[in-house]
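Structural prep section.
Before we set up the soaks we want a predicted structure of the protein with zinc ion in place, mainly to decide which crystallisation condition to try first. Input record follows.
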Amino acid sequence: MKNQAVVMTDTRVFEIQDVPMPEIGDDEVGIAVKDVSICGSDMHFFDGGAYSIFPKETALPFVLGHEVGGEVYAVGKNVKNVKIGDRVAVEPGVPCGKCDYCRSGRYNLCPDVVFLATPPVQGALKRYISYPAHSVYTIPDNMSTMEAALCEPLSVGLSAVRTGEVTVGSSVVILGGGCIGLCTLLAAKAYGATRIIVTDLFDFHLEKALELGATDVVNSKNEDAVAKIQELTGGKGVDVVFETAGSPYTAAQTSEIVGRGGTIIMVGNIMQETPFSFRNMYKKGATLKSIFRYCNTYPIAIQAIASGRIDVKKIVSAEFDFEHSQAAFEEATDNKVNCVKAVIHVE
Ligand SMILES: [Zn+2]
Ligand SMILES: [Zn+2]
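Run finished without errors. Recording the tokens verbatim:
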């Protein structure tokens, strides 16, 4: 067995390098990586946008990739939950298991979490990795390792929808129809939302949203999204608004389109100063919440996909092999208009 990694050696520059096979600890499994899907945070690294948080000098060389599906080829001597030959989804955050947050079940808030592809922790765009067994989940036969990788972005959608308490009959607006917006849409539909309005600037994203079950879409480049949503809802607004675009503009819209007694869920990573009308929110008795990653979602994501309740593979718009990882990242980063999700088939 020969291991290789896609190593980012400079901004927008990848090199495929031979690297040692991973050592496998007693509580770890060895995984032959099969699929890695590319996330917004990976792209942010690729084009240098993340240097403001992780300085280039210390972050590079760096291996990206935290959305991973693979097959177990070795197990440490203490491992009981998976066996050799199992195909698995890899949860990228490994919490400490000991702090107050972990012990209260909110392990996404663990201050000592070890998260793949977050410096100094290297990512998983390699042929073989070792990984703590308790953060690895076996998938059933009718599910692909690509779908296993997609459990990661779907987990964000599931977490958003659970936090927003979406239920049968809920009306929702999803601001942003990129990968996370579409995963939120899939989750909202699975939880029973009957009115799902998606806004975006790109028609391709909105067509995908309609294909995945949106009831209405609004291109906010061509029309006033707030006015259109008011029109669609008879001036009432909706039960739950999800901001997934990570933009100050959409963030500012949330308090205008949430209905009375409704909930706003901040999902996107907004880096700029953002205008937000607390007065609007207060007048409606609305609630504002945010989510940070997710916890306890992998088993649900796997069941939802395996049962056919959520067809997550439909978000994939481009597929590449390991040797073409550079092209995969260029497509994902430079062709956002026509690319929702790019996946690298490692093997
Ligand atoms: Zn991700
Ligand atoms: Zn912890």
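Observations: The pocket of zinc ion (ligand 1) is lined by residues 39, 66-67, 152-153 (CB under 6 Å).
Flagged for discussion at group meeting.
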